[in-house]
Amino acid sequence: MRNRNYETELNERAEFIRNYVKAANASGIVFGNSGGKDAALVGILCKTACENTVGVIMPCSSVRNYGEDMKDAHAAAEKFGIESRTVDLTEVKNKLVQELSPSAKLTDSAIANIAPRLRMTVLYSIAAAEGRIVAGTGNRSERHMGYFTKWGDGACDFNPIADLTVTEVYEFLRYLGAPENIIKKAPSAGLFEGQTDEAEMGVTYEAIDKFLLTGQANSKDLAIIEKYHAVSEHKRKMPAVFGG
What we know:
CATH superfamily: HUPs
Mean pLDDT: 95
Number of helices: 13
Number of strands: 4
Shape: globular
Oligomer: single chain
Helix content: 40-55%
Distance between the termini: 39 Å
CATH topology: Rossmann fold
């Protein structure tokens, strides 16, 4: 990993956020506080740049959402003085699945992707009500792999960490003194019980980050990385339009 001056980097990223808030004529920022590494870093950066930053905790079905993740979300918010709100989406999701059932046979994947889209609906509703802009929390590694929900956690007005790999996110959090449990726990979208990012993808973030930063990977990891990147290309593009 390259040597970096975190104090300078913190100031530069905060300035980027301040300029975006000003250009948007927004009153503040709202982001999804999942209790994970990316949300923690985005929350810290946004709070540094803009006092009027709100993190929304949005548990949805998963036991982990109500336990470890919620605890870590509150811990990060309290340590860095970030306002917290909680919107419980479990019953909303259950009702939506129930209403959809007569119209479509939902796959596990279709059901799992409902939660991220509901969460983004919450964030944009709060943003619209209060003149805020929505901060994204996706990192470079996830974006390259397409490991996010289209129009769910992939949606945002701006993203201050999109250029950082997972490894770099962890390094930044250590510098900032983020809660240790957020740094140590296995990355997970918490979409279903026992889910972890690396187990679901079949490749480690260490291998993904090594490939992104050096171009090196063993044949097995490279095959997985290239497959994920290829099939998710549509997620990284604006919708196709006739004549465009």
